[in-house]
Amino acid sequence: xxxxxxxxxxxxxxxxxxxxxxxxxxxxxxxxxxxxxxxxxxxxxxxxxxxxxxxxxxxxxxxxxxxxxxxxxxxxxxxxxxxxxxxxxxxxxxxxxxxxxxxxxxxxxxxxxxxxxxxxxxxxxxxxxxxxxxxxxxxxxxxxxxxxxxxxxxxxxxxxxxxxxxxxxxxxxxxxxxxxxxxxxxxxxxxxxxxxxxxxxxxxxxxxxxxxxxxxxxxxxxxxxxxxxxxxxxxxxxxxxxxxxxxxxxxxxxxxxxxxxxxxxxxxxxxxxxxxxxxxxxxxxxxxxxxxxxxxxxxxxxxxxxxxxxxxxxxxxxxxxxxxxxxxxxxxxxxxxxxxxxxxxxxxxxxxxxxxxxxxxxxxxxxxxxxxxxxxxxxxxxxxxxxxxxxxxxxxxxxxxxxxxxxxxxxxxxx
Length: 415
Prior knowledge:
Layout (H helix, E strand, L loop, with lengths): L3 H19 L7 H16 L8 H25 L5 H21 L18 H11 L15 H15 L4 H6 L1 H22 L4 H12 L2 H8 L4 H20 L3 H17 L6 H14 L3 H34 L20 H5 L4 H6 L11 H11 L10 H24 L1
């Protein structure tokens, strides 16, 4: 027994090191695969249409426990007892657990945007048309104008559920597991961006926690439209462009371009990310070593365009040809949210505290001040939450405003 004990301890330490390496949020695909495995297991083992199920209750308990563990890890990290990587992993896991709990407790018709019915022309109808017909819609009515990547993935997921014998209701509710995965992947990839930009220690942990535990993350997790996937692909494109900028390889440029194109294929509006990435591409060309180095970087930039443009624009071109829909089309938002009758300064350059705290939740038809709307919408979306009093929402808005002020001050100092 005395001989076997040291060997057993060594084996345990080896397993711990392998687990830490596999789930390291800073590298490798292990943490993404682990999140996918958890969600697939939950999908197969639970029925989200069952109301207050045991699985939903267990998810809530797991979420509370994960947040408690993350808080303990953050406190121990501040004292140097727990490493930053372990603390960041705990925070990401806590965000994942809360997202899963939220999705399991929120049906696909609650706090959604433009979902519609399964036989309609909203996001849900788009998904079901693809699942049943296996072809793109023959109309661009309402939400059918969107580029189709998210809807294709969701349709395939639904078809898999049908193949496994799940009914339509259960299959539709399980679409939220996809968006939970997207949100978890956003947290991991954003963490890698922060590390790539040079953050470490407490700043890295704080930035990771802000991403993984922000209320918008949870709202996205329960939403079955294409927002979460398009954001994930944008974040992935930024990460790979940063990798290419630090170590210019054609493969990195191709991967970054693929993610950029896929972001547009998920939702046309993320096409503006290409504009944001252009300075990084141009900087690499400008600092290339000699004429040969600059030509090589120009080649990488051309490769970026050659990969991203076909992926991102094939569907907008199809819609242009078939429906006369302009490229990167965005519907007119309507006069009910028109704010042009307010002065430019009152919309963009002031922060009216009466509007900030007097009406806690967003009102798209009544709000006009952009900073205030951003502060509130980033916390609560465009939804109202009844019950529980006003103390918590007021505190959340106040904290969000303080964080925004700190970030603006820091950006000003760096400028």
